[in-house]
């Protein structure tokens, strides 16, 4: 049997008395997907005054609480993820030789330090750890995601209304420590922190957002809690659209940035930064300059973990993966992943859910196989 170069070097190292035995093995190039175990990253908690007196069991009798516009909100008082469809999605990733599973946790797992965050059907620590072990047995690394953007933190229940208070800082530190323990000190911990702008909460009864120094204070505090527990913080980088110079001046290089773009236009015109699109007066320009942000962050020397999606179009993965291969610094590019942004539930009459997730995995895997084929040995 032919010996690979890595095996030869490893044997030589042992023969030499383990000179480099203490060195960690090189990190893999990640190809992964974001799957939703929890779903309460949108909508209100509670949805309105009428729900304050209702128990989780009462709320479970209807699909969703009713929001300000008289329509159901995305918030659920119970875990909507179907175990069989979760397993099907994970297994599809393994079939496609992916090696990273970002798990959007939210309300779906138990936090020992804060049992009040549980809802009906929340996974126990034991059940969660068993699934993490299964994922690892399939050759993939499970890594957690908890979104601390105030526009995506309804999973925090009442703490969503206590942002930037001592009680809030405590729960942030506590749940991060819980998750790092449950995941056995994951390499990465995704913190979200996207879309924290007024328009993103316009349909909520209670809308909170931070800006200026407070946003930076809370971000760095949260990053510090992740690092304190031995993991590396990952975050969405669309905040750069609020002001490129300020973002590049203040964002530390130890944070692994995840620029996202779900379109397919990587033309030179689209990659040129347009300062006129930067946010002014609280308006939302988060969809602007997203493609250009890849270039800005790459050229500024940040480590990157870009994200694509089939949420809006099926050719997005091929476009983004091809762009990463030809334009981004391979030394700074830690991997690529996809986020189908569909819940792990059956398809409805008007929407694809798990089917869209599986399609997203397939489209992304095809693009990666073309531009970053897996090399065995």
Q: Could you say what the CATH architecture is?
A: Alpha-Beta Barrel
The total beta strand count reads 8
Query: How big is the Rg?
Result: 21 Å
| CATH homologous superfamily descriptor | Glycosidases
Helicity, as a percent range: 25-40%
Please tell me what the overall shape is. Answer: globular
Largest sheet: 5 strands, parallel
Read across the widest sheet, the strand sequence of neighbours is: 3-2-1-8-7
Note the beta-strand portion: 5-15%
Features:
single chain; alpha/beta; three-stranded parallel β-sheet; 11 helices; 8 strands; globular; disordered N terminus
Explain what the structure shows:
This protein is an alpha/beta fold and 377 residues long. The chain has a single domain, classed as Alpha-Beta Barrel (TIM Barrel). Helices cover 33% and strands 9% of the residues. The protein is built from 11 helices and 8 strands. It has helices spanning 5-15, 56-59, 83-95, 125-137, 166-182, 212-228, 244-250, 268-271, 290-299, 316-327, 354-371, and strands spanning 30-36, 100-104, 141-145, 188-190, 232-236, 256-258, 307-308, 335-338. The strands form 2 sheets. Strands 3-2-1-8-7 form a 5-stranded parallel beta sheet. The protein has a 3-stranded parallel beta sheet with strand order 4-5-6, with helices on one face. Helix 10 links the parallel strand 7 and strand 8. Helix 3 packs parallel to helix 11 and helix 10 runs parallel beside helix 11 (354-371). The radius of gyration is 21 Å and the shape is globular.
Quick summary:
The protein is of the alpha/beta class and 377 residues long. 33% of the residues lie in helices and 9% in strands.
């Amino acid at each position: 049997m032919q010996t690979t170069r890595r095996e030869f070097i490893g044997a030589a190292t042992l023969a030499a008395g383990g000179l480099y035995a203490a060195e960690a093995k090189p990190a893999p190039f990640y190809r992964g997907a974001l799957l939703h175990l929890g779903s309460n990253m949108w909508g209100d908690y509670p949805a309105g005054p009428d729900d304050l007196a209702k128990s989780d069991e009462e709320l479970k009798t209807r699909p969703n609480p009713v929001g300000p516009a008289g329509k159901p909100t995305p918030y659920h008082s119970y875990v909507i993820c179907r175990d069989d469809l979760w397993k099907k999605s994970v297994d599809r990733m393994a079939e496609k030789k992916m090696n990273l599973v970002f798990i959007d946790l939210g309300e779906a797992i138990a936090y020992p330090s804060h049992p009040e965050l549980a809802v009906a059907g929340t996974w126990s620590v034991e059940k969660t750890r068993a699934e993490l072990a299964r994922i690892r047995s399939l050759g993939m690394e499970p890594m957690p995601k908890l979104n601390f953007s105030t526009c995506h933190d309804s999973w925090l229940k009442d703490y969503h209304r206590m942002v930037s208070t001592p009680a809030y800082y405590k729960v942030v530190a506590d749940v991060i420590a819980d998750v790092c323990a449950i995941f056995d000190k994951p390499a990465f911990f995704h913190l979200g922190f996207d879309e924290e702008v007024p328009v993103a909460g316009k349909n909520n009864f209670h809308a909170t957002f931070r800006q200026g120094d407070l946003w930076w204070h809370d971000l760095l505090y949260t990053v510090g809690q992740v690092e304190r527990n031995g993991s590396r913080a990952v975050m969405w980088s669309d905040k750069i659209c609020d002001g490129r110079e300020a973002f590049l001046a203040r964002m530390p290089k130890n944070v692994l940035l995840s620029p996202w773009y779900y379109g397919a236009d990587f033309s030179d015109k689209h990659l040129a930064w347009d300062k006129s699109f930067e946010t002014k007066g609280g308006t939302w320009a988060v969809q602007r300059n997203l493609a250009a942000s890849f270039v800005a962050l790459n050229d500024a020397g940040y480590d990157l973990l870009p994200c694509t999606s089939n949420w809006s179009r099926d050719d997005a993965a091929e476009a983004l993966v091809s762009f990463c291969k030809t334009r981004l610094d391979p030394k700074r590019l830690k991997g690529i992943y996809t986020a189908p942004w569909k819940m792990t539930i059956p398809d409805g009459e008007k929407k694809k859910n798990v089917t869209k997730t599986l399609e997203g995995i397939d489209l992304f895997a095809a693009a990666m196989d073309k531009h970053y084929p897996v090399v065995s040995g």
